[in-house]
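Q: Could you write out the predicted structure for this multi-component system? I'm mainly interested in how the pieces pack against one another.
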Amino acid sequence: MAQAESRLRVSDRDGVTTVEFVDRNILDEANIQAISEEISALIDRTETPKLLISFSNVDHLSSAALGALITINHRVRDREGQLRLANIDPQIYEVFVITRLNKLFEIHDTADEASASFA
Amino acid sequence: MGSNPTVIRDATRVELAKDRGLIDDVIERILALAAKHGFDAGSGFAIRLAIEEAITNAFVHGNSTMPHDATVTVEYRVSDCSVDVAVEDRGPGFNPDRLPDPTREENLSKPSGRGVMLMRAYMTEVVFNDSGNRVRLTYRRES
């Protein structure tokens, strides 16, 4: 059965869904759209989703990717869920600081810290 | 008659179709040249981000009212002192001074509107032509 290749690695543990990216660069519009749809489907699986997005493999991120994260954040909140971001490279974290999105998202240094922070 | 500040003299010119492979090729070419001229990885991160935003804006917003196969022109010149890149779309242009500030509290949760702001944050200079369909990005080496 032909299925579009996933751009994500997904794991579930203790009620937390962790998402990692296959690609090092999250820049391409079509790719971002596919990632966004895939994560949205994961959010919609549960009543009050606990979603951890890890950027451990990511070297570059565009403003379109930031936009997708904001949309994902809205979707999680609509379902009274919680979203955490983790393992963000210092250069990419700087992009969050410049755009002040570090104020919008709950960002942790490591996935373990982010996991432990879920209420 | 004033000169156009977005013109790059002796630039290499590439016309791009909306194709990820072609976009990646030109960006990699510019970054390889920048590295050859001694720009470090941090500079490369900044230059890639700004070019990426400019090209995305050109295709997604600039050419939005144009035929589907409308192209985007990229011009570049790299020297030991600076990396200059101009990106031009086929659309009618826009007024970059009218963009809302995406860092204001009321705009923080809006999913779009950060591209030009990021270009300005990471480049030494960002200049638009009068009609707003062409932008010149300049990254100068810190002296």
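A: Regarding packing and overall arrangement: The longest strand of chain A covers residues 8-13.
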